[in-house]
Amino acid sequence: MIRIGYAPGAYDLFHVGHLNLLKQAKEHCDFLIAGVVADDVLIQHKGVKPVVPLAERLEIVRNVRYVDEAHPAFTNDKVAIWKDLRFNVMFKGDDWKGTEKGLQLERAFGELGVEIVYFPYGKITSSSALRRTLKNIDELARRVRERPSAMEPAFAF
Predict the structure, then answer these.
(1) Helix 100-112 crosses helix 78-85 at what angle (to 10 degrees)?
(2) 3-class DSSP state of 77
(3) Of 21, 60, 63, 148, most Cβ neighbours within 10 A?
(4) Reading across the β-sheet that carries 69-73, which strands appear in turn?
(5) Rounded CA gap, 4 and 139, in Å?
(6) Domain 4-146 has CATH 3.90.380.10
(7) pLDDT in tens, 131-154
(8) Which residue spans within 38-122 are E strands per DSSP?
(9) pTM for the whole structure
């Protein structure tokens, strides 16, 4: 039986953590499908607007050598996605393991015969940390722009 894997993610600000996840996933299946979460789904479920638009994130992920196919995920409903793609193993970070959403996923996929494989959640780089850094840079730039110029007097007489 061919092992078809599914690795969903935002893959925003693509970094080595994403690459490692896809590499590990490919080591556990014969054919790897990456699900790239659509912009509106990401905003709705995580409250985060992606920095990189969906079309560009798809292009990046499609060109990772471990990925056999990349599909946009226009829903957060993994069972609905399974009905379309028919994978038999799904890969998630272990930050899902033991959580309510992880347990719900395990129950739903257990009934369908789909295995859930958890990988250690990497601490190397995260999109959240990159987003915070960008936000801090923006804030610093705003403060610098608002600061009085060195050529302007600091006080008036």
Answers:
(1) 30
(2) coil
(3) 21
(4) 69-73, 31-37, 4-9, 89-93, 115-119
(5) 44
(6) no
(7) 565 566 656 656 667 776 655 555
(8) 69-73, 89-93, 115-119
(9) 0.79
